[in-house]
Amino acid sequence: MSKRRVVVTGLGAVTPIGNCTRDFWNGIREGKVGIGPITAFDVTDYKVKLAAEVKGFDAREYMDFKAAKRMERFSQFAVAAALEAFQDSGLNMQEENAFRAGVIIGSGVGSLQEVEESIKRIREKGSSRVNPLMVPRMISNMAAGNVSIQLGFRGKCTSAATACATGSHCIGDAFRAIQYGDADIMAAGGTESCICPTGVAGFSALTALSQSQDPMRASIPFDKDRDGFVIGEGAGVVILEELGHAKARGAHIYAEVTGYGATGDAYHITSPIEDGSGAAKAMELAMEEAGAGPEDIDYINAHGTGTHHNDLFETRAIRAALGGAADKVVINSTKSMIGHLLGAAGGVEFIVCVKSIEDGFIHQTIGTKETDEECSLNYAVGAPVEKPVRFAMSNSLGFGGHNAALLIKRYED
Predict the structure, then answer these.
(1) Pick the catalytic residue: 169, 245, 340, 402?
(2) Could you read off the pLDDT of 200-218 as tens digits, one per residue?
(3) 357: which of 117, 119, 153, 409 lies 20 to 30 Å off by Cα?
C-alpha cells in the first residue's frame, strides 16, 4: 500500500512564554525566557526554586465553566491548544466525516495534583470524600478524550505515554494513521502540568533538575556548567491532514511531515545509551522514509534537556546519524527558553520546527555561553540564525529509552 502524503494545517500552543502560537513564536523570536520562581506551591524546603510555569491561563476562555471544572490542568492545556489548532486549520466539522478525524494526544504524567489532593482528603476526611471525578481527572489519556469531545472528532482516539518523548510519538503515530488511511485529519501532540510538590520532589530525587536560582542560567543545554533541566508545563497540538484533503478544501499548508523514526535503547531507565545509537537510528529511519540524506538537514531541534548525560549522548547520536554533515547543521534547544515540558515538549518543539521553516529563523540556545568540550556541534549559541530551512528535524528522548525523530519539510507541490 502506498503511503499518503501528510501536511500540517493547524498549530496550537500553550507555553511559559505565550498562551497561543502567535505569542509563543513572538516570544521565541524575541529571545524571551519563561523561567522564574515557582509560584504553584511553597518551595521553602526544596533545593529547586525555579520552574517554567504557564502564566495567566484561564480555562474559561476556551470552554464553559462546567467542562473546565471536570478537567485537570493538563487536560485544559490540551483542549486550549487543540481548539487553537482547529480554528487555525479552518476546518468545519459540519462538512467533514467525524469518523475520519481522530486524536492522538498524550501526557507523560497525567495529574499528580489530583493524586496529591485525593491522598490529602483520604487522610483528613476519609476515603468516601474523594472526588467522584478523581480517576477521569487524573489519568493521562483524558487529554485526548477531552479534545475529542470538544472538537467532535470521532475517529481513532488514542494516547501514547512515553515520558519526555510523548508529544513526538503522538504526532508520529498520527502521521502514520493518515499515511495508511485510518484517518484524513488528526489532532496530535502532547500536554503536561506537574509543577507540584510530588513532581518537583520526584525529579529532584533523581538529581535531574537544575538547582540554579538564576533564570537565565538554569536551563543551559550543552553548556559546560549545565546541572539539570528546568521543569515546565504547557501543550503543543497540531492538525495533520492528508494532502489531497487539505488541498480540496483550500487549507493553508504550513509544512509537510515526511519522516518518523521510533526506537528503544534497551539500556537504562533514565539514561540514554552512551553511544547514542538508539536516537541515531531513529534519526536515520526518519531520513530514510523522507528520502533525505544527512546533507539535506538544515536544522535540528534537539531534545537538549541540560542534563549531563542527555546532551552528551544526544551529541554522539547526531554525529552517528549525520556523519560529516553534523557540523554543518544548525542545532538548538527550545528548552533553554521554556524549560522541559516533559510529555508536551515534542508537540511544542514540532511547532518551533514548522515556524522555523516558515520564517527562515532558528532561535538561539538562550543562556548557554560556553559549550562542553564533548558537545562540539553548532548549537546556535550567542545569536539566532536566519537562513532558509527546507528540512527540520525534531528529536525527543524519554525515560525508559524511548526515542523519536520527526522530519518536517517545506511544503512543495
Answers:
(1) 340
(2) 999 999 999 999 999 999 9
(3) 153
Report CA-CA distances (Å) from 72 to 13, 114, 119, 135: 17, 7, 16, 11
- 374 three-class SS: coil
pLDDT per residue over 155-169, tens digit each? 999 999 999 999 999
Give the dihedral sign, CA 52/162/183/7.
Answer: positive
Cα 246–Cα 285–Cα 25 angle in degrees, nearest 5: 50
pLDDT of residue 263: 98
393: which strand partners? 300, 407
Distance between CA atoms of residues 103 and 348, nearest Å: 16
Catalytic residue among 164, 194, 353, 375: 164
Active site residue 303: yes
The predicted model scores a pTM of 0.98
User: How many Å apart are CA 234 and CA 232, to the nearest integer?
Assistant: 7
User: Catalytic one among 157, 194, 196, 303?
Assistant: 303
Contacts of residue 305, defined as CB under 8 A and 6 or more positions apart, other chains included, come to 164, 221, 228, 229, 311, 333, 335, 340
b vs e for 88-118, b when ≥16 Cβ sit within 10 Å of the residue's Cβ?
bbebeeeebeeebbbbbbbbbbbbbbbbebb
SS3 helix, strand, coil % of the chain, rounded to 5?
Answer: 40, 20, 40
The x, y and z cell numbers of residue 91, run together, are: 476546518
Q: Is 134 helix (H, G, I), strand (E, B) or coil?
A: helix
Q: Is the dihedral of CA 249, 254, 258, 260 positive or negative?
A: negative
Q: How many of the other CB atoms lie within 10 Å of CB of 353?
A: 24
Q: What is the pLDDT of residues 247-258, one digit of tens each?
A: 999 999 999 999
Q: Is 20 a catalytic residue?
A: no
Write down the H helix ranges in 187-324.
197-205, 243-248, 277-290, 308-322
What are the residues facing 396 on neighbouring strands? Answer: 404
Q: Which helix (H) or strand (E) holds 158?
A: strand 157-158
